[in-house]
Structures are given as C-alpha cells and as structure tokens.
Design goal:
Oligomer: single chain
Low-confidence stretches: none
Distance between the termini: 13 Å
Number of strands: 4
Largest sheet: 4 strands, parallel
Strand order of the largest sheet: 2-1-3-4
Amino acid sequence: MVSKKILVCCGTGIATSVQVANKLQKLLKDRGVTTTMKECKAVEVPAQTAAFKPDAIVSTTVVKSPSADVKVYRGVAFLTGVGADKLADQIAEDLKG
C-alpha cells in the first residue's frame, strides 16, 4: 500500500475541506493509497505546502500550485458526487506513479 500526504483546501478551511478530505481518504484507500490529510483555507496553501510537504493538493476553489512538484486537483466532484470515482482513480494513479 502506498502512503501519501494530501492538502485539502476550500475558502474557509472548515466544513467543505473536511468533507472532501473524508470522502477522498476513503476512495483512495479503496484504491490502495493510504493518506494523511490536512485541511486549510485556500489562502494558506503556500505556507501549508512548505510546512506539511504534501504529495498533492485537492481544492474546491481555484488555487495555484506553489510548487512544480505538487499537482493541484479540483475537488468539487467529491462534494457533488459527479465524477468522484474518475477523479479518485486519476489521483490514485498519479500518486502511485
């Protein structure tokens, strides 16, 4: 099983990011990827990336990747359910690669 760190962010860093993190953690575990999740506000992404050193960022709002090494995924699918499995497949594949 692969173990990775994911930073999950939304506008306020409270409810939405926690909901996305919980859903994504389960979906990735089903795909053989164990994760440590950290939630934050979108404006905190640069500082949290430096401190937490995530392997990926999942955001429900537009954020720019603070590092060329860290891919950002739009996580709205984990709120709506539409395309969540496809996005989880893509994230799992990228993290395993």
